[in-house]
């Protein structure tokens, strides 16, 4: 048996339709009495409904969530929490709302309870980020890991199909990279493979019927596993590239993941054959990279960088940024390799192995 290190993720998880009704008891069990409810504008009505159920346990609702947590928004949400002497932050929404609640947890030393509505997986991680002058600085502390996570599929049926597909591909990417990351271990690999299967089954069903509560629940199961896998095993080239493309070139977060994932899997296939074989097995396909590209197409996610606004002239800079500082990845990371990968992703070409790309460049 190979030696390994596995760090457990100690969150309490409730998953099931209607389980948001258990929020008051969950707060009581933790002795929490004054929550700041943090939500995106699109979820304001849901937040009001939740606040009514919480009665005096909800001290205020904050709905000025901004994606990637700009420093001003971080200061804003912390001021709102201090103003009502909040003893916890409850996040209702996607990674953006959860990211804002995590800042409150980090700076005010109060717990977070999360009710996710997307499949980004942030609710199961110890990472949080704040963006200053266009640069997102990501830090880690167990303080921001939610104490309780309630996955209620009824909260996600309003997530449009066009957002659900890319969001699921974002969660899938955490599972895929966890299989070959530096801290990959047998325990998180089990979860990662299970998560890929859950997303592979659920996302096409959601695309066909966004009101399918069973599929929504299964996608949440995938999201839970993806967050655990991400925070326990780590990340590689795919996440590095997506952070560069999202942060520096301001491309939409989940959509970038959906476009890039299959190309990175193709890039890493020869260097991490066993991990990639598990991706294929979980999806029930012969070729993992092609399978992921097909899945993205089937769930209505974008498949090229050009269709989500990446300027062609910036591909060189993106490749330089993603290859300049060393980080772990199964296949060697080179400027030429990343540049060729980005070219394929820009055009939305079928995926191809690194060796094929090399041969194409040589002729
Ligand atoms: P998001 O939270 O910005 O939500 C995407 C869109 O969906 C928004 O317009 C939102 O208003 C809308 N929406 C959310 N729930 C809805 C619902 N139920 N009905 C209708 N509309 C709804 O996007 P995201 O992709 O979930 O999160 C992205 C952010 O999370 C990024 O900043 C990313 O860096 C961060 N993230 C962090 C981690 C981590 O571990 N810290 C992990 C993944 C993502």
Number of helices: 14
Q: Describe the largest sheet.
A: 6 strands, parallel
Spatial order of the strands in the main sheet? 1-8-5-4-2-3
Structural class: alpha/beta
Associated small molecules: nicotinamide-adenine-dinucleotide
Helix content: 40-55%
Proportion of residues in extended strands: 5-15%
Tell me, briefly, the overall form: globular
Mean pLDDT: 95
Which terms summarize this structure?
14 helices; two-stranded antiparallel sheet; 6-stranded parallel β-sheet; alpha/beta; single chain; binds nicotinamide-adenine-dinucleotide; 363 residues
Structural features, described:
- The chain has 363 residues and is α/β, with parallel strands linked by helices.
- The protein contains 14 helices and eight strands.
- The chain has helices at residues 23-29, 44-54, 71-83, 95-108, 161-180, 186-208, 213-233, 237-249, 253-268, 273-283, 288-298, 315-324, 335-347, 354-362, and strands at residues 12-15, 35-39, 58-62, 88-93, 112-116, 127-132, 135-140, 148-151.
- The strands form two sheets. The chain has a six-stranded parallel β-sheet with strand order 1-8-5-4-2-3, with helices on both faces.
- A hairpin with a 2-residue loop joins strand 6 (127-132) and strand 7 (135-140).
- Helix 5 (161-180) runs parallel beside helix 7 and helix 9 (253-268) runs antiparallel to helix 11.
- The relative contact order is 0.11.
- The model has no long low-confidence stretch (mean pLDDT 95).
- Nicotinamide-adenine-dinucleotide binds next to helix 4, strand 6, helix 5 and helix 9.
């Amino acid at each position: 048996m190979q030696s390994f290190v596995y760090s457990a993720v100690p969150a309490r998880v409730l998953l099931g339709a209607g389980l948001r009704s258990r929020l008051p008891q969950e707060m009581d069990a933790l002795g929490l009495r004054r929550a700041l409810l943090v939500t995106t504008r699109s979820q304001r009505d849901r937040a009001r409904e939740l606040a009514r159920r919480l009665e005096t346990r909800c001290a205020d609702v904050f709905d000025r969530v901004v994606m990637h947590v700009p420093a001003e928004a971080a200061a804003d949400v912390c001021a709102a929490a201090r103003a009502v002497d909040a003893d916890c932050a409850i996040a209702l929404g996607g990674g953006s709302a959860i990211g804002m609640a995590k800042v409150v947890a980090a700076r005010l030393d109060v717990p977070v309870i999360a009710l996710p509505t997307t499949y980004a997986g942030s609710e199961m991680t110890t990472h949080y980020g704040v963006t200053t002058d266009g640069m997102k600085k990501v830090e880690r502390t167990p303080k921001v890991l939610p104490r309780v996570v309630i996955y209620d599929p009824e909260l996600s049926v309003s997530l449009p199909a066009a957002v659900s597909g890319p969001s699921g591909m974002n969660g899938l990417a955490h599972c895929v990279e966890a299989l070959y990351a530096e801290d990959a271990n047998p325990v998180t690999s089990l979860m990662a493979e299970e998560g890929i299967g859950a997303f592979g089954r659920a996302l096409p069903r959601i695309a066909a019927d966004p009101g399918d509560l069973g599929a929504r629940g299964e996608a949440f199961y995938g999201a839970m596993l993806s967050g655990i896998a991400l925070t326990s095993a780590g990340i590689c080239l795919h996440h590095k590239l997506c952070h560069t493309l999202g942060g520096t070139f301001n491309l939409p977060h989940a959509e970038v993941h959906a476009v890039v994932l299959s190309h990175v899997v193709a890039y890493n296939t020869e260097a991490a054959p066993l991990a990639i074989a598990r991706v294929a097995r979980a999806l029930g396909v012969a070729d993992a990279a092609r399978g992921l590209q097909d899945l993205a197409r089937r769930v209505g996610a974008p498949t090229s960088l050009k269709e989500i606004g990446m300027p062609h002239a910036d591909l060189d800079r993106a490749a330089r940024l993603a290859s300049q500082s060393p980080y772990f990845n199964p296949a060697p990371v080179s400027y030429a390799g990343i540049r060729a990968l980005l070219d394929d992703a820009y055009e939305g070409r079928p995926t191809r192995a690194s060796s094929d790309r090399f041969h194409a460049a040589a002729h």
